[in-house]
C-alpha cells in the first residue's frame, strides 16, 4: 500500500504542477513510512519538501497555498498528532468555501497514518475519524488496500474540497485480519495488491461490497474489513461485508440496500465506541431500515479507553469479538 | 544558598484601572525622524535595535521629518486622509445601526485607521492580505464598495456572503482581502502559506499577515514565524499592538517583556516598530517591508504601536476595565488629526476644507447606507434564501445535505 500511495502522489504531481507535497520528514528522507520516497529527487524541493514540526503550521500553510491556487497534499506523521492542526482543519479548511461563498476554496488533502494493531501504544494507534466526520465541509476517506489507496488518493487530490485521508498503517505492508499470531502475507499475494500503472481514480463517496452475503450486513473500513472477512469465514456466517472507503460523504444507498436484503447489521471499527462513527452508522441503519431489521444493530469497536500498549490484543476488536457479534446478531 | 521562602505567583496588571489617572509614562516615544532607514537588503542582525524603537515621521509641529519621510505626494496624502475619515464615518454609522437593531454586531477601528488605510497603499494589485476583523481600511483604501460592506453587515439579500457570516467578516479575493475567520491567529500562518505558494509558483505577488497584540499568544503566531523564516516567504507579518485584547492589557500577552516586534528577532526576521498613528510612517515602513518581500529577501515583522480608542466591539464596555479618558492620554494622538495638521502645515488643507470633507463623506456614507438598507437589514426587508444555507458547504452538494434541504422544506 505504501508504493500505491507514493504512486498516487507521483502520478498527480506529474499531471499537475499545482500539486505540492510536504510534511515532517517527507522531503529528502521520503517519509518515516517511505510514502514520499523519491518525490523530492524527481520533482525538486519546491514541490516536495520537509516541514518544521508543527502540524498547525503544516495544515495552516497548506490552506494558504490552496487559497492561492495550489493543491497541497500534506502529511501528518501520525493521526495521533493531528490535534494541534484541528483548529485549522475544522475552523478554516472545512469552512473556507462556505464562509466566503466560494470566493476562496481549500482543495487540500491531509494524509495521516491511522489505526492500531502495531503495538503503537497511546499515540501511534488512534483512529480519530469521528472527529472529522462530525465536521461539515470535510470529506473523510479510509482505504483498505493498495488498489483503492491509489485511486482514492488521486481522487482526493483532484477533489475541490478538503479531504482527510486516513491510511491504516497496519495495512501498509499487507492485509491484516487480526490474527497477530500468524505470519502476515505481503500485498503481492493479494488480488487487491495489484495496482494499475498511471492515472485512475476510485470515486469518493462510493462503498464497495467485499464479500457478498445474505445473512447479515457488516459495515467496516480500513483494517476491520479483513477482520470481518476472517470472522465471517471462521464462524461460517454468510455475511455481506461492505468496505465503506469514504465515511463522509457516505454511500448510504449501498448500505441500505444491503441491510434491507439481510435484515441484520453489525458495525465494526477500531475507534472507541462512544460517539464513534459506528453510532452514526447504526442510527442511519435504524432510521432507514427499521421495518427490515430482524435484530438490533450491533457495534464492535475499541473500548472507551486510551489505546493501551501491553493489552494490544485485548483492545483491538479481533476476529473472535467480531465473530461473536455476528453469531449474536443472527441469533437475536 | 539563602532560603528564598515561599514561591509567589505573578500576574501582570495594567498601570491604571477605572477611576485612576491614565499613565503612559512607561511608553518611551522616540522623536520623529530619529530612527534610520536601512537598505532593504540589510543584514537583520544589524538592525536589531529597530525592534525596540518606534519609527515616526510626523513631529509635534505636524512636519514630516527624517529618513522615512518624503514618499507620498500631496494628492496621495489627501487621499489617505479621505480614506481614514471615510472609515471613521463608516464605523460611526454602523455602530449606530447596531444600536438601532439593524444588525447584531459591529467592531470599530477608532484610533487605528492609519494602520490598514496606509498599509493598503504600499501593496500592489494582486497581493493578498490575511486580515483580522479590524483592518477594514484595507477595503476602503482599495475602493471596495461601502454598500457591499454594509450588505454583509446587514446580512441582507445583497450580502455577498449570503448571510452565512457574522457582520464585518468580509471576504474579497478581487480586493486582496482574505475571508475573515472568527478564530484568532489562524490566518497568520495561512498568509505565510499563500506567500510560499507565490514563491513556489515563481510569481511576483506577496502576502500580508495581520494579528493583534493579544492573539500573538496563539500558537499559530509561532507557527507563522517559523515557516516564514524557514522558507524565506514573501510576507509582511503585521502585529497591531493597540494595547488591549478585549479587557486584557497587552502585558498578559507579554508585551512589556520586550516588544512584539522583538518576537521576530529570535527567528532571524528583520523586525520594525512603527508609530501606528502616523500615516506617513505606516506607509513608509509597509513599503519597505513589501519591497523586501518582493525582492525575494524574505519576511519582515512590523509592530504598529497604536491604541484601541473604541470599545472592543458593540458587545463590550471598556469603562469596566480601563480609565474612561485613557485614549485622550495616549501619547501618539489621533491618526486623522495628525495627518490633517500635517496637510495644513504643508499648505494643502485647512480646517474649513476638513469640515467640508467630513460633511461630504458623511453624506456619501449615509447614501450608501440607504442603498444597503433598501436590500434589507438583519430583521427587516430582503433576506438571503434559506436554500443558501445548504449551498457551498462542498463544491457539489452531497446526498445527505440534499436530504436535509428537503427536510427543511427549502
Helices and strands, with pairings:
The complex is a heterodimer of chains A (332) and B (410).
Chain A: H1 2-15, E1 19-23, H2 39-43, E2 48-50, H3 55-68, E3 71-75, H4 86-93, H5 96-99, E4 109-114, H6 129-133, E5 139-141, H7 146-158, E6 163-168, E7 208-211, E8 216-220, H8 224-235, E9 239-243, E10 246-248, H9 252-262, E11 265-272, H10 277-289, E12 298-302, H11 312-315, H12 319-331
Parallel strand pairs in A: 1-2, 1-3, 3-4, 4-6, 5-6, 8-9, 8-11, 11-12
Antiparallel strand pairs in A: 5-10, 7-9
Helix pairs in contact in A: 1-7, 3-4, 8-12, 9-10
Chain B: H1 74-99, H2 113-120, E1 128-130, H3 137-140, H4 146-154, H5 186-200, E2 207-212, H6 219-230, E3 235-241, E4 244-245, E5 248-249, E6 271-275, H7 279-294, E7 300-305, H8 326-329, H9 335-345, H10 351-374, H11 399-408
Parallel strand pairs in B: 1-2, 2-3, 3-7, 6-7
Antiparallel strand pairs in B: 4-5
Q: What oligomerization state is this entry in?
A: heterodimer
CATH fold-level topology of the largest domain in chain B: Rossmann fold
Q: How helical, in percent, are the residues of chain B? A: 25-40%
CATH architecture of the largest domain in chain A: 3-Layer(aba) Sandwich
- Provide the low-confidence segments of chain B as ranges: none
User: What name does the CATH topology of the largest domain in chain A carry?
Assistant: Rossmann fold
How much beta of chain A, percentage-wise?
A: 15-25%
Distance between the termini of chain A: 38 Å
Q: Helix count of chain B?
A: 11
Silhouette of chain A: globular
- Outline the biggest β-sheet of chain A: 7 strands, mixed
- The total beta strand count of chain A reads 12
Strand order of the largest sheet of chain A: 2-1-3-4-6-5-10
Assigned CATH architecture of the largest domain in chain B: 3-Layer(aba) Sandwich
Instruction: Kindly report the greatest chain-chain contact and the residue count on each side.
Output: A-B, 46 and 46 residues
Shape of chain B: globular
Tell me, what is the CATH class of the largest domain in chain B? Alpha Beta
Family (chain B): Belongs to the BCKDHA family.
Region (Disordered) (chain B): 1-36
InterPro entries (chain B): Alpha-ketoacid_DH_E1_comp, DH_E1, Oxoisoval_DH_suAlpha_N_dom, THDP-binding
Catalytic activity (chain B): N(6)-[(R)-lipoyl]-L-lysyl-[protein] + 3-methyl-2-oxobutanoate + H(+) = N(6)-[(R)-S(8)-2-methylpropanoyldihydrolipoyl]-L-lysyl-[protein] + CO2
